[in-house]
C-alpha cells in the first residue's frame, strides 16, 4: 500500500550521502543461517550432510555478526539510532533540518511511522523558518514522505492489527475497507495538497486513489 519501498532524499545538501547499501541484508543472512541449523537438527539417523552445509551456516552467521548499519541501508532501526545521536549533538537550526530528515527517513523505513511523521512535520516547520529556499525546493518531496507516514499508519492500524481475509486485496472492498480511518484521511489531506501544486504527478495521484479506496 505504500507505493515506494525506500525513502528519497531532498535535493539540496543531500543528507545521508555517506550511507550506502552494500551486501546481502542481514535479516536474509540470519534466516538462511537459521534454516541451515534447523536442517542440521532434523537430519535423520544414518543421514549425513556434506561438509559445505555447516560451513555455509557458520559463514552466514559470521557475516551477520559483523553487520554494519553505516554500510547497509536495510538496517533502518540501527541507522535511526545513529541519526538520533547526531541530531542530539546538533544545535544549529539549519543542520538540524538535515539531521531530522535523515532520522525521519530511517524511522519510516523501520516502521516507526508516527515518530517519523512528527519529525517530518518538524522538518517542515524548521525549514520554513531557517531555510525557505530549501523548503520551497523540497516541499513536495517532504509532503510525499508525510503522506507515506499516514498510509503506513493506516496499514498498521487496519491491515495488521485488524486483519481480515479482504485486507490489502485490490480493489479494496468489504473487510478491506479501513475501520480506523486516521491514516487514510491524513494521507488524503496531504496528497490532495501535493496534487494542487502539481496536478501531473501521477504517482501521488495513484496513492490518493488508494487512500480514498480505503475509506
What fraction of residues sit in β-strands? under 5%
Based on CA atoms alone, the radius of gyration comes out at: 21 Å
Helix content: 55-70%
Give the ordered list of helices and strands. HHHHHHHH
How far apart lie the N and C ends?
14 Å
What does this structure look like?
There is one protein chain. Helices cover 63% and strands 0% of the residues. The N terminus is likely disordered. It is an all-alpha fold.
List keywords for this structure.
single chain, 215 residues, disordered N terminus
Please summarize what this structure is.
The protein is mainly α.
Task: Note the topology.
Blueprint: H1 26-41, H2 52-65, H3 76-88, H4 93-109, H5 113-130, H6 132-160, H7 182-197, H8 202-213
Helix pairs in contact: 1-2, 3-4, 4-5, 5-6, 6-7, 7-8
Amino acid at each position: 500500500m505504500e507505493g515506494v519501498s525506500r525513502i528519497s532524499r531532498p535535493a539540496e545538501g543531500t543528507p545521508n550521502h555517506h550511507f550506502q547499501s552494500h551486501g546481502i541484508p542481514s535479516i536474509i543472512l540470519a534466516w538462511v543461517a537459521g534454516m541451515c541449523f534447523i536442517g542440521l537438527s532434523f537430519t535423520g539417523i544414518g543421514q549425513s550432510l556434506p561438509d559445505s552445509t555447516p560451513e555455509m551456516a557458520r559463514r552466514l552467521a559470521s557475516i551477520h555478526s559483523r553487520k554494519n548499519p553505516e554500510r547497509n541501508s536495510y538496517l533502518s532501526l540501527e541507522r535511526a539510532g545513529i541519526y538520533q545521536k547526531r541530531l542530539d549533538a546538533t544545535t544549529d537550526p539549519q543542520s538540524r533540518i538535515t539531521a531530522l530528515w535523515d532520522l525521519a527517513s530511517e524511522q519510516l523505513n523501520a516502521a516507526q511511522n508516527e515518530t517519523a511523521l512528527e519529525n517530518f512535520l518538524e522538518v517542515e516547520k524548521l525549514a520554513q523558518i531557517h531555510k525557505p529556499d530549501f523548503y520551497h525546493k523540497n516541499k513536495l518531496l517532504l509532503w510525499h514522505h508525510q503522506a507515506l507516514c499516514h498510509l503506513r499508519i493506516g496499514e498498521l492500524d487496519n491491515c495488521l492489527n485488524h486483519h481480515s481475509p479482504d485486507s490489502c486485496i485490490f480493489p479494496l472492498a468489504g473487510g478491506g475497507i479501513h475501520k480506523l480511518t486516521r491514516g487514510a484521511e491524513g494521507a488524503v489531506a496531504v496528497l490532495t495538497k501535493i496534487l494542487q501544486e502539481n496536478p501531473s504527478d501521477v504517482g501521488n495521484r495513484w496513492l490518493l486513489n488508494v487512500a480514498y479506496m480505503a475509506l
